[in-house]
Amino acid sequence: PPKPPSLLPTTRLQISSIPRSSSPNTSCPNSESPDPHTSPSGHWVYPSEQQFFAAMQRKNHSPNPTDMSSIVPIHNAVNERAWSEILRWESHRGRAAACGGPKLVSFRGDSSKLTPKARLMILLGYQPPFDRHDWTIDRCGQNIDYVIDFYSGKRDPRRPEAVSFYLDVRPKVNSVEGVVMRIGRFFSGFFGSS
User: Fold this and answer.
1) Fewer CB under 10 Å: which end of the chain, C or N?
2) For the chain, how many structural domains are there in total?
């Protein structure tokens, strides 16, 4: 039987590279934890093994406590990768540098909700994503929404034990800015810049 979450480590917290917005209009900044943490540096703090285990149980998964020491670092690395992809999108929006760069306002995971692009990819024969996140960033006072579809990646035959993920990170098309960014990225593919 799984150990009660209280027996899992609670003090091994990792500070992320992701700056946290201090936006006053954020009611629930983190769907993963009822008690979100911020480091003194102002960056997000990843959940402990106990917090991650409890979050998986709340989502009706059947987590194995002994897996938490492996799963939590993978979770953190995948989120760092998602943030680096968002920074890549944001690097083409010059204003963000003027106020210290983009900051994460909130995020929410919902693996049961498919994006229109994920539905299209499934119709084309691809595997569905195993998770979806919606992240809101603060770009100098302007909130920009991003969606992230998480896919299992292709395994490296030289290292079959290594996990592999593919992240499809993009601005949502729920605002003029999101549409402009997506169109700009589409056309930049034809003209050689990214």
Assistant:
1) N
2) 1
The Cα–Cα gap between 83 and 44 comes to 12
Buried b or exposed e, range 46-68, using 16+ CB within 10 angstroms: bbbbbbbbbbbeeeeeebebeeb
pLDDT of residue 59: 82
Query: What are 172's two structure tokens?
Result: 């949502």
| Residue in the structure block whose two tokens are 């030289």 | 158
Nearest to 16 by CA among 75, 65, 60, 66: 75
Does residue 5 sit within a domain?
A: no
Taking alpha carbons only, the member of 51, 71, 55, 63 closest to residue 6 is: 51
Instruction: Examine residue 90 and state whether it is found in any structural domain, yes or no.
Output: yes
Q: In this predicted structure, what is the pLDDT of residue 27?
A: 44
The Cα 16–Cα 106 span in angstroms is: 14
- Token pair belonging to 23: 């936006």
